[in-house]
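Standup notes
- DV: blocked on the single-chain target, sequence here:
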Amino acid sequence: MVRRGRVADLGAVHGTTKTGVGIASMGVMRPDLAMRNIIPVVMAGVLSIYGLIVAIIQGSIDPPNGNAPKYGSYTGFVHLATGL
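- DV (later): unblocked, structure below
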């Protein structure tokens, strides 16, 4: 579960960094639009929280012992679809 949460947080960090650079350059070129461009930063934070929630849900679905059914292709593709 730790890896799943880290991947979501790395994506949020990347998004926040890219939008922060955009806001900084927008503040220099058009200061009147700087506050309007905060929305992508907020969305990156929201997506990080969503990724953490999905990681917790997927972690609870994984079998806790060795006798449970293995993690199959179908379950893997379902988890991939939740992240997309």
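- Follow-up: Residues 44 and 60 are 25 Å apart (CA to CA).
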